[in-house]
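S1.2 Input.
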Amino acid sequence: MDTGKVAIGSKSVMRAINDSSAQAVIVSVRGKKEIIEDITHMCSVAQIKLLKFPGNSLELGTVCGKPFSVNALAVLSEGNSNILKENY
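S1.3 Output.
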């Protein structure tokens, strides 16, 4: 989060998938079911790596350093992390 670029929120994530700027997408498995299904389908069609965070959206927000819940986020640029190279 510190060195890379991300899009936070389901609408921003869907936009990033549509314009092919998302390199990977992370969704909270305990988030809103309809949103998760839509994003999962869009990622499979666009062949974008999808990572499922095992916690709820508030926990995902905390992990991202945000004081609010995050249902989904798209990695636009990985920065110094290895998130795109890891196998999950």
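S1.4 Remarks. Residues 6 and 75 are 5 Å apart (CA to CA).
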